[in-house]
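Case 303 in the screening queue. Each case pairs one protein sequence with one candidate compound; here the compound is nicotinamide-adenine-dinucleotide. For every case the pipeline is the same: read the inputs, emit a complex structure as C-alpha coordinates, and attach any notable structural observations.

Predict complex for case 303.
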Amino acid sequence: MNEHSKNAVIQAQRNPTSKYPRPPYRKQTQTWPGLACEMNPPPDHGETSYCGSGRLLGRRALITGGDSGMGRAAAIAYAREGADVAINYFPDEEKDAEDVIKLIKQAGRKGVALPGDLRDESFCRKLVEDAVRELGGLDILVSNAGRQQARESILDLSSEDFDATMKTNIYAPFWLIKAVLPHLPPGAAIIATTSEQAYDPSPQLYDYAQTKAATMNYVKSLAKQLGPKGIRVNGVAPGPIWTPLQVSGGTTMDRLQQFGAKTPLGRAGQPAELASIYVQLAAEDASFATGQVYGAAGGSGQP
Ligand code: NAD
Ligand code: MG
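Case 303 output:
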Protein backbone atom coordinates (compact mmCIF):
# COMPACT_ATOMS: atom_id res chain seq x y z
CA MET A 1 0.00 0.00 0.00
CA ASN A 2 1.52 3.35 -0.95
CA GLU A 3 1.50 6.45 1.30
CA HIS A 4 -1.47 7.99 -0.51
CA SER A 5 -3.77 4.99 -0.29
CA LYS A 6 -2.75 4.46 3.35
CA ASN A 7 -4.01 7.96 4.12
CA ALA A 8 -7.11 7.28 2.06
CA VAL A 9 -7.89 4.35 4.37
CA ILE A 10 -7.27 6.45 7.49
CA GLN A 11 -9.67 9.07 6.17
CA ALA A 12 -12.33 6.59 5.08
CA GLN A 13 -15.84 7.37 6.31
CA ARG A 14 -16.13 6.36 9.95
CA ASN A 15 -18.82 6.40 12.61
CA PRO A 16 -18.11 9.57 14.64
CA THR A 17 -19.46 7.99 17.83
CA SER A 18 -16.81 5.25 17.83
CA LYS A 19 -13.97 6.92 15.93
CA TYR A 20 -12.14 7.95 19.12
CA PRO A 21 -11.95 6.80 22.77
CA ARG A 22 -15.23 7.16 24.66
CA PRO A 23 -15.81 7.81 28.36
CA PRO A 24 -15.09 6.77 31.00
CA TYR A 25 -11.58 8.23 30.67
CA ARG A 26 -8.73 7.38 33.01
CA LYS A 27 -8.22 9.47 36.13
CA GLN A 28 -5.28 11.80 35.55
CA THR A 29 -4.10 15.18 36.61
CA GLN A 30 -1.23 17.43 35.58
CA THR A 31 0.13 20.72 36.80
CA TRP A 32 -1.01 23.64 34.63
CA PRO A 33 -0.45 24.08 31.68
CA GLY A 34 0.02 20.31 31.22
CA LEU A 35 1.61 18.35 28.39
CA ALA A 36 -0.06 16.46 25.54
CA CYS A 37 2.75 13.89 25.64
CA GLU A 38 1.71 12.88 29.17
CA MET A 39 -2.00 12.40 28.46
CA ASN A 40 -3.60 8.97 28.40
CA PRO A 41 -5.05 8.26 25.89
CA PRO A 42 -2.83 10.57 23.81
CA PRO A 43 -4.78 13.27 21.95
CA ASP A 44 -4.95 13.10 18.16
CA HIS A 45 -3.72 16.31 16.52
CA GLY A 46 -3.77 14.85 13.02
CA GLU A 47 -0.16 13.67 13.17
CA THR A 48 -0.87 10.56 11.07
CA SER A 49 -4.05 11.65 9.32
CA TYR A 50 -4.01 15.25 8.09
CA CYS A 51 -3.40 15.45 4.33
CA GLY A 52 -2.67 18.86 2.84
CA SER A 53 -3.43 20.04 -0.69
CA GLY A 54 -1.59 23.36 -0.96
CA ARG A 55 -4.45 25.48 0.37
CA LEU A 56 -2.12 27.81 2.31
CA LEU A 57 0.93 27.65 0.09
CA GLY A 58 3.43 30.40 0.99
CA ARG A 59 1.37 31.83 3.85
CA ARG A 60 3.03 32.78 7.16
CA ALA A 61 1.18 32.01 10.37
CA LEU A 62 1.64 32.76 14.06
CA ILE A 63 -0.28 30.39 16.35
CA THR A 64 -0.45 30.94 20.12
CA GLY A 65 -0.77 27.76 22.17
CA GLY A 66 0.66 25.98 19.12
CA ASP A 67 2.38 23.29 21.18
CA SER A 68 -0.72 21.23 22.01
CA GLY A 69 -4.46 20.91 21.56
CA MET A 70 -6.24 22.89 18.86
CA GLY A 71 -3.15 25.04 18.26
CA ARG A 72 -1.01 22.00 17.49
CA ALA A 73 -3.68 20.56 15.18
CA ALA A 74 -3.80 23.89 13.34
CA ALA A 75 0.02 24.08 13.17
CA ILE A 76 0.33 20.60 11.64
CA ALA A 77 -2.47 21.26 9.16
CA TYR A 78 -1.14 24.69 8.17
CA ALA A 79 2.35 23.29 7.52
CA ARG A 80 0.94 20.43 5.43
CA GLU A 81 -1.12 23.00 3.50
CA GLY A 82 2.14 24.80 2.64
CA ALA A 83 2.43 27.53 5.31
CA ASP A 84 5.45 28.48 7.39
CA VAL A 85 4.45 28.47 11.04
CA ALA A 86 5.66 30.18 14.23
CA ILE A 87 4.26 28.79 17.48
CA ASN A 88 4.10 30.45 20.86
CA TYR A 89 3.68 28.46 24.07
CA PHE A 90 4.42 28.70 27.77
CA PRO A 91 8.13 27.97 28.49
CA ASP A 92 7.21 24.84 30.54
CA GLU A 93 5.82 23.25 27.37
CA GLU A 94 9.10 22.88 25.48
CA LYS A 95 8.68 19.11 25.16
CA ASP A 96 5.36 19.40 23.29
CA ALA A 97 6.64 22.33 21.24
CA GLU A 98 9.66 20.36 20.02
CA ASP A 99 7.35 17.67 18.63
CA VAL A 100 5.34 20.28 16.74
CA ILE A 101 8.41 22.00 15.26
CA LYS A 102 9.65 18.59 14.10
CA LEU A 103 6.32 17.90 12.36
CA ILE A 104 6.29 21.34 10.67
CA LYS A 105 9.79 20.72 9.36
CA GLN A 106 8.86 17.21 8.19
CA ALA A 107 6.14 18.88 6.09
CA GLY A 108 8.94 20.82 4.39
CA ARG A 109 8.04 24.17 5.95
CA LYS A 110 9.77 26.61 8.29
CA GLY A 111 8.86 26.07 11.95
CA VAL A 112 9.78 28.70 14.53
CA ALA A 113 9.51 28.20 18.31
CA LEU A 114 8.79 31.41 20.25
CA PRO A 115 8.15 30.58 23.94
CA GLY A 116 7.01 33.20 26.44
CA ASP A 117 4.24 34.37 28.76
CA LEU A 118 1.39 36.11 26.94
CA ARG A 119 0.21 37.82 30.14
CA ASP A 120 2.98 40.36 29.53
CA GLU A 121 2.21 43.13 27.03
CA SER A 122 5.82 43.76 26.07
CA PHE A 123 6.29 40.04 25.41
CA CYS A 124 3.23 40.05 23.11
CA ARG A 125 4.74 42.89 21.09
CA LYS A 126 8.10 41.12 20.92
CA LEU A 127 6.42 37.87 19.89
CA VAL A 128 4.86 39.50 16.85
CA GLU A 129 8.11 41.27 15.92
CA ASP A 130 10.06 38.01 16.22
CA ALA A 131 7.52 36.09 14.13
CA VAL A 132 7.55 38.78 11.43
CA ARG A 133 11.34 38.79 11.34
CA GLU A 134 11.68 34.98 11.30
CA LEU A 135 8.96 34.35 8.72
CA GLY A 136 9.46 37.47 6.60
CA GLY A 137 5.96 38.78 7.40
CA LEU A 138 2.63 37.45 8.64
CA ASP A 139 -0.63 36.56 6.87
CA ILE A 140 -2.44 34.60 9.59
CA LEU A 141 -2.76 35.10 13.35
CA VAL A 142 -4.39 32.27 15.28
CA SER A 143 -5.07 33.64 18.76
CA ASN A 144 -5.68 30.33 20.46
CA ALA A 145 -3.85 30.22 23.81
CA GLY A 146 -6.20 30.06 26.76
CA ARG A 147 -6.40 29.55 30.51
CA GLN A 148 -9.21 27.55 32.13
CA GLN A 149 -9.27 26.60 35.81
CA ALA A 150 -12.50 25.17 37.22
CA ARG A 151 -13.76 26.56 40.56
CA GLU A 152 -16.91 25.18 42.17
CA SER A 153 -17.81 28.54 43.69
CA ILE A 154 -17.16 32.17 42.86
CA LEU A 155 -16.00 32.33 46.50
CA ASP A 156 -13.06 30.06 45.57
CA LEU A 157 -11.98 32.37 42.77
CA SER A 158 -9.22 34.75 43.88
CA SER A 159 -8.54 38.07 42.25
CA GLU A 160 -5.13 36.71 41.12
CA ASP A 161 -6.88 33.78 39.48
CA PHE A 162 -9.47 35.98 37.82
CA ASP A 163 -6.74 38.33 36.65
CA ALA A 164 -4.64 35.50 35.15
CA THR A 165 -7.62 34.28 33.13
CA MET A 166 -8.44 37.78 31.90
CA LYS A 167 -4.80 38.51 31.03
CA THR A 168 -4.42 35.28 29.04
CA ASN A 169 -7.80 35.17 27.32
CA ILE A 170 -8.69 38.85 26.86
CA TYR A 171 -5.66 41.11 27.20
CA ALA A 172 -3.19 38.93 25.27
CA PRO A 173 -5.34 38.80 22.10
CA PHE A 174 -5.87 42.59 22.40
CA TRP A 175 -2.12 43.19 22.62
CA LEU A 176 -1.30 40.67 19.89
CA ILE A 177 -3.85 42.01 17.44
CA LYS A 178 -2.66 45.59 17.97
CA ALA A 179 0.93 44.49 17.33
CA VAL A 180 0.15 42.37 14.29
CA LEU A 181 -2.21 44.70 12.41
CA PRO A 182 0.44 46.99 10.88
CA HIS A 183 2.03 43.87 9.35
CA LEU A 184 -1.08 42.22 7.88
CA PRO A 185 -1.68 42.64 4.14
CA PRO A 186 -5.17 42.66 2.58
CA GLY A 187 -6.29 39.02 2.37
CA ALA A 188 -4.85 38.23 5.79
CA ALA A 189 -6.88 36.38 8.42
CA ILE A 190 -7.23 36.56 12.19
CA ILE A 191 -8.75 33.48 13.82
CA ALA A 192 -9.66 33.36 17.52
CA THR A 193 -10.46 30.25 19.51
CA THR A 194 -13.61 30.90 21.48
CA SER A 195 -15.83 28.17 22.99
CA GLU A 196 -19.33 26.82 23.34
CA GLN A 197 -18.89 28.26 26.87
CA ALA A 198 -19.58 31.66 25.30
CA TYR A 199 -23.29 30.84 24.98
CA ASP A 200 -23.72 27.84 27.32
CA PRO A 201 -21.50 28.54 30.35
CA SER A 202 -20.72 25.87 32.98
CA PRO A 203 -21.23 26.92 36.61
CA GLN A 204 -17.57 26.07 37.40
CA LEU A 205 -16.25 28.39 34.69
CA TYR A 206 -17.48 31.79 35.86
CA ASP A 207 -14.32 33.63 34.74
CA TYR A 208 -13.35 31.53 31.72
CA ALA A 209 -16.81 31.45 30.14
CA GLN A 210 -17.16 35.22 30.15
CA THR A 211 -13.79 35.58 28.39
CA LYS A 212 -15.08 33.31 25.62
CA ALA A 213 -18.25 35.41 25.29
CA ALA A 214 -15.98 38.43 24.99
CA THR A 215 -13.90 36.64 22.34
CA MET A 216 -16.99 35.88 20.30
CA ASN A 217 -17.96 39.52 20.61
CA TYR A 218 -14.61 40.96 19.52
CA VAL A 219 -14.55 38.63 16.51
CA LYS A 220 -17.69 40.38 15.33
CA SER A 221 -16.67 43.97 16.13
CA LEU A 222 -13.18 43.56 14.65
CA ALA A 223 -14.59 41.91 11.53
CA LYS A 224 -16.65 45.08 10.97
CA GLN A 225 -13.70 47.33 11.73
CA LEU A 226 -11.17 45.48 9.55
CA GLY A 227 -13.44 44.34 6.71
CA PRO A 228 -12.82 47.50 4.65
CA LYS A 229 -9.05 46.83 4.95
CA GLY A 230 -9.54 43.33 3.51
CA ILE A 231 -8.66 41.55 6.76
CA ARG A 232 -11.04 38.83 7.85
CA VAL A 233 -11.68 37.96 11.51
CA ASN A 234 -13.39 34.71 12.49
CA GLY A 235 -13.72 32.39 15.46
CA VAL A 236 -13.67 28.67 16.18
CA ALA A 237 -15.95 27.38 18.95
CA PRO A 238 -14.96 23.92 20.17
CA GLY A 239 -17.03 21.78 22.51
CA PRO A 240 -15.36 19.37 24.98
CA ILE A 241 -11.99 18.48 23.43
CA TRP A 242 -9.34 16.13 24.84
CA THR A 243 -6.41 18.50 25.54
CA PRO A 244 -3.92 19.32 28.35
CA LEU A 245 -6.05 22.30 29.40
CA GLN A 246 -8.73 19.89 30.60
CA VAL A 247 -6.42 17.60 32.61
CA SER A 248 -4.49 20.45 34.28
CA GLY A 249 -7.35 22.05 36.22
CA GLY A 250 -9.78 22.94 33.44
CA THR A 251 -12.17 20.19 34.50
CA THR A 252 -12.59 18.46 37.85
CA MET A 253 -11.51 14.80 38.04
CA ASP A 254 -15.00 13.25 38.22
CA ARG A 255 -16.19 15.34 35.29
CA LEU A 256 -13.04 14.50 33.33
CA GLN A 257 -13.88 10.81 33.52
CA GLN A 258 -17.22 11.55 31.86
CA PHE A 259 -15.85 14.28 29.60
CA GLY A 260 -18.04 14.70 26.51
CA ALA A 261 -20.40 11.91 27.58
CA LYS A 262 -23.41 14.21 27.42
CA THR A 263 -22.86 15.27 23.80
CA PRO A 264 -25.05 13.53 21.22
CA LEU A 265 -21.87 11.85 19.87
CA GLY A 266 -21.19 10.57 23.40
CA ARG A 267 -17.47 11.32 23.71
CA ALA A 268 -14.85 14.03 23.90
CA GLY A 269 -13.69 15.50 20.62
CA GLN A 270 -10.06 15.43 19.47
CA PRO A 271 -8.03 18.46 18.34
CA ALA A 272 -7.67 16.85 14.89
CA GLU A 273 -11.42 17.17 14.42
CA LEU A 274 -11.09 20.97 14.34
CA ALA A 275 -7.96 21.31 12.17
CA SER A 276 -9.85 21.71 8.90
CA ILE A 277 -11.93 24.57 10.39
CA TYR A 278 -8.76 26.57 11.14
CA VAL A 279 -7.57 25.83 7.61
CA GLN A 280 -10.89 26.79 6.04
CA LEU A 281 -11.11 30.12 7.87
CA ALA A 282 -7.57 31.04 6.76
CA ALA A 283 -7.92 29.86 3.17
CA GLU A 284 -8.46 32.05 0.14
CA ASP A 285 -11.72 30.33 -0.78
CA ALA A 286 -13.25 31.58 2.49
CA SER A 287 -12.80 35.16 1.24
CA PHE A 288 -16.41 36.15 2.05
CA ALA A 289 -16.39 34.67 5.57
CA THR A 290 -15.76 37.26 8.26
CA GLY A 291 -17.32 37.84 11.68
CA GLN A 292 -18.31 34.18 11.73
CA VAL A 293 -17.89 31.54 14.41
CA TYR A 294 -17.60 27.95 13.21
CA GLY A 295 -18.16 25.21 15.76
CA ALA A 296 -17.39 21.54 16.38
CA ALA A 297 -18.94 20.38 19.63
CA GLY A 298 -20.32 16.91 19.06
CA GLY A 299 -23.85 18.31 18.87
CA SER A 300 -23.81 20.20 22.17
CA GLY A 301 -23.68 23.89 22.97
CA GLN A 302 -25.45 25.36 19.97
CA PRO A 303 -26.08 29.13 20.29
P1 NAD B 1 -4.08 23.33 25.38
O1 NAD B 1 -3.71 23.20 26.79
O2 NAD B 1 -3.51 22.38 24.43
O3 NAD B 1 -3.78 24.78 24.82
C1 NAD B 1 -3.80 25.95 25.60
C2 NAD B 1 -2.46 26.62 25.38
O4 NAD B 1 -2.53 27.94 25.87
C3 NAD B 1 -1.32 25.95 26.10
O5 NAD B 1 -0.74 24.94 25.31
C4 NAD B 1 -0.37 27.11 26.33
O6 NAD B 1 0.68 27.06 25.39
C5 NAD B 1 -1.19 28.33 26.05
N1 NAD B 1 -1.12 29.30 27.15
C6 NAD B 1 -1.93 29.41 28.23
N2 NAD B 1 -1.52 30.43 29.00
C7 NAD B 1 -0.43 30.97 28.41
C8 NAD B 1 0.43 32.05 28.71
N3 NAD B 1 0.24 32.81 29.81
N4 NAD B 1 1.44 32.32 27.87
C9 NAD B 1 1.65 31.58 26.75
N5 NAD B 1 0.85 30.54 26.42
C10 NAD B 1 -0.17 30.25 27.23
O7 NAD B 1 -5.67 23.29 25.35
P2 NAD B 1 -6.74 23.57 24.21
O8 NAD B 1 -7.99 23.02 24.77
O9 NAD B 1 -6.28 23.15 22.87
O10 NAD B 1 -6.87 25.15 24.24
C11 NAD B 1 -6.77 25.95 23.09
C12 NAD B 1 -7.92 26.92 23.07
O11 NAD B 1 -9.13 26.19 22.93
C13 NAD B 1 -8.06 27.74 24.34
O12 NAD B 1 -8.35 29.09 23.99
C14 NAD B 1 -9.24 27.11 25.01
O13 NAD B 1 -9.91 28.03 25.84
C15 NAD B 1 -10.07 26.71 23.82
N6 NAD B 1 -11.12 25.71 24.05
C16 NAD B 1 -10.82 24.48 24.53
C17 NAD B 1 -11.83 23.55 24.72
C18 NAD B 1 -11.54 22.16 25.23
O14 NAD B 1 -12.49 21.46 25.60
N7 NAD B 1 -10.33 21.71 25.24
C19 NAD B 1 -13.14 23.90 24.42
C20 NAD B 1 -13.41 25.16 23.93
C21 NAD B 1 -12.39 26.05 23.75
MG1 MG C 1 0.21 23.06 25.79
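Case 303 observations:
- Residues 53-296 form a domain with the Rossmann fold fold (CATH 3.40.50.720).
- The pocket of nicotinamide-adenine-dinucleotide (ligand 1) is lined by residues 33-34, 65, 67-71, 88-90, 93, 117-119, 144-148, 168, 193, 195, 238, 240-241, 243-246, 271 (CB under 6 Å).
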